[in-house]
Protein 1
Amino acid sequence: MSNKTHLYNRIKLYRIAANLSREELAEKVDVNFQTIGYLEREEYNPSLELALKMCAVFGVSVEQLFSFEPFSTTF
């Protein structure tokens, strides 16, 4: 049995709204663009540092971008 907590996110929604490619977002937060794909598919949980960098890029709070509960599909 896994103790890993599932973390939901709206990264793709905010990325598209900001008109950023995965590559552009990756450059802004200093990761490989493939990491953005893993995060968007919720296959990987970001470090606190990376989560805060992403929130800064989008100008949102952590709670707006990440949640332990599923998000609705809109902002």
Note: The chain is about 50% helix and 5% strand.
Protein 2
Amino acid sequence: MAEIKVYGADWCGDCRRAKGMLDRMDVSYEYLDVDIDLDAKAEAIRISGRKNIPVIVFPEGDVLVEPTDPELEKTLLRRSA
């Protein structure tokens, strides 16, 4: 499976929660810290149209912004089916 991109920041609780779910489900992803990488920050805003994080981009084109655990899990399970 192609890699998921997660745009987030270490101080963001929703980002830590989403990364935790990805880790628990053993899903490969690339983490882009928007506090360190200003190009990633600009890209996350371009993709989502807002400044909220995390922005999770799936290779198939799906984008989740600040997803709840059920939303993220549903998308991950749909990908693995």
Note: The helical segments are 13-24, 38-48, 69-80.
